[in-house]
């Protein structure tokens, strides 16, 4: 058996690598745009700036130094060129894709940085592996402008994984919906009928206002906004207003609110204020052919029948009264149980005549 020459023994001492192999080496030289590694092969390994980072301005001397250990994947081995082309980015991307696949299979939540805002969504990077989150899956509400997310770290899950077709889809919306539902359930568990709570007006409609109670919405119906009459909620509330309400009813996830606090009920002391014979002051709120309704206080209306407006004949109230006009009248009937009060101006005239006759 022939003995090997020194050159042959030297060549045999070098290991052989192939494209796709993961190797570890020692940094033997660093330049701003290039890292040279001793990886145990006949040729040294080279990592260019573009194969280390997506940052085209990165100075590689700031990220490593001679003597440091590094891992990379073999991109190309060329004895002719006398070098092994290595990549840290591709290794990180491969490991990132594996991490994404595991997260997809296990339905795990991931966190990644938004590196680019695209026309149709967000491009997010997890360990150099890219994930696309469509605009419709970025939030639980419609957002026209996604620019605020650029540079942010966000959480999401992988709902589609097909790296061969470069189709890895993320979903942030589902996490937000789950979080919102959890907050709602926690809040509902601690709410009970009668609780007084401060909320924020979220939306105003012609039938009421939706109030954000801190993660769950309640409806403040127009009829529950005041003891008085409200014709247009938009004249009373605007989005963003803070208001104090109490829980009137809870049915499943629907919460009915009210601002008609019992201790503020204008009928609480009505029997004394509006006793028969009392002279009261009010304002014409509305009229019909048979009489005028006089607002004595917010939530307390009284009927002034057309026959009680004057000693003279009046065909209809609008002939002598107008909405908004202030009047004095005498209470001639009070029915607390029915919340009904009848007034008379004519009776005041009768009283004056009786006094004059004396």
Provide a brief overview of the structure.
The protein is of the alpha+beta class and 358 residues long.
Describe this structure in words.
The model has no long low-confidence stretch (mean pLDDT 88). With 358 residues, the chain is α+β, with helices and mostly antiparallel strands. Strands 1-2-3-5-4 form a 5-stranded mixed β-barrel. A 5-stranded antiparallel sheet has the order 8-7-6-9-10. The longest helix has 19 residues. A hairpin with a 2-residue loop joins β1 and β2. Helices cover 18% and strands 40% of the residues.
Number of H/I helices = 6
Mean pLDDT score, rounded? 88
Q: What would you call the structural class?
A: alpha+beta
Shape: rod-shaped
The count of strands amounts to 20
> How can the largest sheet be summarized?
5 strands, mixed, barrel
The low-confidence runs, each spanning 5 or more residues with pLDDT under 50, are: none
The side-by-side strand order for the widest beta sheet comes to: 1-2-3-5-4
Task: Spell the H/E element sequence.
Answer: HEEEHEEHEEEEEHEEEEEHEEEEEH
**Fraction in beta strands:** 35-45%
Measured distance between first and last alpha carbons = 154 Å
How much helix, percentage-wise, in residues?
10-25%
The whole-angstrom Rg is 40 Å
Topology record:
Layout: H1 6-13, E1 22-31, E2 34-38, E3 44-48, H2 49-52, E4 69-78, E5 83-87, H3 88-106, E6 110-118, E7 121-126, E8 129-134, E9 153-162, E10 167-171, H4 173-190, E11 196-204, E12 208-212, E13 217-221, E14 242-251, E15 254-258, H5 270-273, E16 279-287, E17 291-297, E18 300-305, E19 326-335, E20 340-344, H6 346-357
Parallel strand pairs: 3-5, 13-15, 18-20
Antiparallel strand pairs: 1-2, 1-4, 2-3, 4-5, 6-7, 6-9, 7-8, 9-10, 11-12, 11-14, 12-13, 14-15, 16-17, 16-19, 17-18, 19-20
């Amino acid at each position: 058996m022939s003995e090997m020459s020194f050159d042959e023994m030297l060549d045999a001492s070098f290991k052989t690598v192939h494209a796709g192999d993961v190797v570890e080496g020692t940094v033997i030289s660093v330049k701003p745009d290039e890292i040279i590694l001793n990886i145990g092969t006949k040729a040294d390994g080279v990592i260019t700036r573009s194969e280390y980072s997506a940052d085209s301005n990165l100075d590689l001397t700031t990220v490593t130094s001679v003597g440091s250990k590094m891992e990379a994947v073999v991109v190309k081995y060329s004895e002719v060129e006398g070098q092994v082309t290595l990549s840290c980015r591709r290794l990180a991307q491969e490991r990132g894709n594996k991490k994404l696949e595991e997260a997809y299979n296990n339905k795990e939540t991931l966190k990644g940085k938004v590196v680019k805002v695209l026309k149709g969504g967000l491009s997010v990077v997890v360990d150099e592996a890219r994930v696309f989150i469509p605009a419709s899956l970025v939030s639980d509400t419609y957002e026209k402008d996604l620019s605020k997310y650029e540079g942010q770290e966000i959480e999401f899950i992988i709902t589609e994984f097909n790296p061969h077709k470069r189709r890895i889809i993320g979903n942030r919306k589902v996490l937000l919906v789950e979080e919102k539902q959890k907050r709602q359930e926690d809040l509902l568990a601690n709410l009970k009928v009668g609780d007084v709570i401060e909320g924020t007006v979220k939306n105003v409609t012609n039938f009421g206002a939706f109030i954000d109670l801190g993660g769950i919405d309640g409806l403040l119906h127009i009829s529950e906004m005041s003891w008085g009459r409200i014709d247009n909620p938009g004249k009373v509330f605007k989005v963003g207003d803070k208001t104090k309400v109490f829980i009137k009813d809870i049915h499943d996830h629907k919460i009915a609110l009210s601002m008609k606090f019992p201790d503020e009920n204008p009928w609480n002391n009505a029997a004394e204020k509006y006793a028969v014979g009392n002279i009261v002051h009010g304002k014409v709120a509305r009229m019909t052919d048979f009489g005028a309704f006089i607002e004595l206080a917010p939530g307390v209306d009284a009927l002034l029948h057309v026959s009680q407006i004057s000693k003279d004949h009046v065909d209809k109230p609008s002939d002598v009264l107008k909405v908004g006009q202030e009047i004095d009248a005498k209470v001639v009937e009070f029915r607390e149980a029915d919340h009904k009060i009848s007034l008379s101006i004519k009776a005041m005239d009768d009283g004056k005549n009786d006094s004059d006759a004396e």
